[in-house]
Design brief:
With about 500 residues, the protein is of the alpha+beta class. It has 2 domains: about 300 residues, Beta Complex (Beta-clip-like), CATH 2.170.270.10; about 90 residues. It is about 35% helix and about 15% strand. The strands form 6 sheets. A 4-stranded antiparallel β-sheet has the order 3-2-14-15, with helices on one face. Strands 4-11-10 form a 3-stranded antiparallel β-sheet, with no helix packed on it. The protein has a 3-stranded antiparallel β-sheet with strand order 5-7-6, with helices on one face. A hairpin with a 4-residue loop joins β14 and β15. The longest helix has about 35 residues. The radius of gyration is 29 Å and the shape is elongated. The N terminus and C terminus are likely disordered. The structure holds S-adenosylmethionine. S-adenosylmethionine (SAM) binds next to β3 and β9. Belongs to the class V-like SAM-binding methyltransferase superfamily. Histone-lysine methyltransferase family. SET2 subfamily. It is found in: Nucleus; Chromosome, Centromere. One of its GO terms (biological process) is vegetative to reproductive phase transition of meristem. It is an enzyme of class 2 (transferase).
């Protein structure tokens, strides 16, 4: 179904995308749930107690698995088919300053409640990375790809549900949870706390950061991490200082992709004060909004501001004027040197800016979960080899050096392969890295450590058995002097 816009509406155009209620499986077939894989709970429905049907104590609910219709003992009374039945909370699409569109609650939402499913195209991680790069090159300003499992992602850029509009917050009131539904993993947005009507929904993206432009976070939380995805491994690897004295990638030098640039009204005034009431009113009157219910999306052509919208706008204005934001905005707007150039989502030619001012992403592999602030001193094997006396010794050290290099390359390429699983595990405590993936990683890490150990023990062994070369006369005299000195000391 095409999500259409009302051409009479004022303000920003509504986004164009295809609205879907279930994940799209064009990339691969939907798995067919085998009968032996269907998990059947032990709930018994009691007509006198409607809560007896698949509630908190249902074995399937406890294991984040939806009951399979036709197999649940509670039959049609089963309450554990929320994804399948699209039992969504009522929400409304609204324009949020600086952050594009967002979703607000239209009703009281209880802590832990299922809000809606994050639907999109199910694609492989390889495809996801490719698409992310293509979108960026084509100037697609918002990112809609999220992790599904170790090997797949959901891309809601072209096809998706309303969940694609939920913005990020470093202090979120929602979270994503993975559920098993009829043999497939599906991602749901759940309330982390009770949410009152008119409150914007937000979860912590903590998403994969693929390199390239970074988006400044405008969530306004006190403990805001500064950038979207700033906690992701990729982002940290790219922005941390890696070598002594090499601060090319330190956080204060990275180019910024600033979503606040999109809307003129979101720019803080020169003196750092918040927008005037007049500006706020203008913002409110030009807002567009959509309302969602469980099974339909209705457009609203009403352009009169409701108290809820005013709240939302006021909230974002406050956000913009917090002390942290003032500092961030001033930095980004005043400094236009190539190193700190603002990468605008609207005006900037992303690929041009990328090639001119973004530092090249280094292929530094994941280093065992630790960011590297202390530079590791590398032994220069070529120099060491020159010191060795025999050809055999040299060959041995060179052979171990080769093995060490291969092990490092293997670990590095493996990291690219399994990074989604590692990050998913770090992000989402309910998931665990598949044993096969963990085993591969441990094996490759051990191989690299062993290769390093073999190399350095070979260096030590061969250096130790290399006779000291005859030295020039000057050195000899100096050493002789030292010997005398030692003897003298001994004599005393
Ligand atoms: C999944 S979309 C969310 C919906 C989006 N606002 C829209 O209009 O379609 C993610 C994008 O929204 C923007 N965004 C979300 N949360 C943000 C935040 N806290 N600060 C700045 N931009 C944000 C970023 O451009 C991000 O790539």
């Amino acid at each position: 179904m095409q999500f259409s816009c009302d051409p009479d509406q004022e303000g920003d155009e509504l986004p164009q995308y295809e609205h879907i209620y279930q994940n799209d499986f064009s990339y691969r077939k939907h798995k067919k749930q085998k009968e032996e894989d269907i998990s059947i709970c032990e709930c018994k429905f009691d007509f006198g107690d409607p809560d007896s049907a698949c509630g908190e104590r249902c074995l399937n609910v406890i294991t984040n698995t939806e009951c399979t219709p036709g197999y649940c003992p509670c039959g049609v009374y089963c309450k554990n088919q929320k994804f399948q039945k699209c039992e969504y909370a009522k929400t409304k699409l609204i324009k949020c300053e600086g952050r594009g569109w967002g979703l607000v609650a239209l009703e009281e939402i209880k802590a832990g409640q299922f809000i809606m499913e994050y639907c999109g195209e199910v694609i492989s991680w390889k495809e996801a990375k490719k698409r992310a790069q293509t979108y960026e090159t084509h100037g697609v300003k918002d990112a809609y790809i999220i992790s599904l499992n170790a090997s797949e992602a959901i891309d809601a850029t072209k096809k998706g549900s309303l969940a694609r509009f939920i913005n990020h917050s470093c202090r979120p009131n929602c979270e994503t949870r993975k559920w098993n539904v009829l043999g497939e993993v599906r991602v749901g947005i759940f309330a982390k706390e009770s949410i009152s009507p008119r409150t914007e929904l937000a979860y912590d993206y903590n998403f994969e950061w693929y390199g390239g432009a970074k988006v400044r976070c405008l969530c306004g939380a006190v403990a805001c991490s500064g950038f979207l995805g700033a906690k992701s491994r990729g982002f940290q690897e790219d922005t941390y200082v890696w070598e002594d004295g090499d601060d090319r990638y330190s956080v204060d030098k990275i180019p910024v992709y600033d979503s606040a640039e999109d809307e003129l009204t979101s720019e803080p005034s020169k003196n750092g004060e918040s927008n005037t009431n007049e500006e706020k009113e203008k913002d409110i009157s030009t807002e567009n909004h959509l309302e969602s219910t469980a099974l339909n999306i209705q457009q609203q052509s009403d352009s009169t501001p409701t108290p809820m919208e005013e709240d939302v706008v006021t909230e974002t204005v406050k956000t913009e004027t917090s002390e942290d934001m003032k500092l961030l905005s001033q930095n980004s707007q005043e400094d236009s040197s190539p190193k700190t150039a603002i990468v605008s989502r609207v005006h900037g030619n992303i690929s041009k800016i990328k090639s001119e001012s973004l530092p090249k992403k280094r292929g530094r592999p994941f280093s065992g979960g630790k960011t590297k602030n202390v530079a590791q001193k590398h032994v220069d094997i070529a120099n060491v080899v020159q010191l060795l006396a025999t050809k055999e010794a040299q060959d041995e050290v060179l052979k171990y050096e080769e093995v060490k290099k291969e092990a490092a390359v293997r670990l590095s390429s493996l990291y690219d392969e399994i990074r989604p699983a590692i990050e998913e595990h770090e992000r989402d405590s309910q998931d665990s890295v598949a044993t096969s993936v963990a085993e591969k990683w441990i094996q490759a890490s051990c191989n690299k450590l062993k290769a390093e150990f073999d190399l350095y023990s070979s260096v030590i062994k061969n250096i130790a058995s290399t006779p000291i070369k005859p030295q020039d006369t000057k050195t000899k005299v100096a050493e002789a002097g030292n010997e005398d000195h030692i003897k003298l000391l001994e004599a005393k």
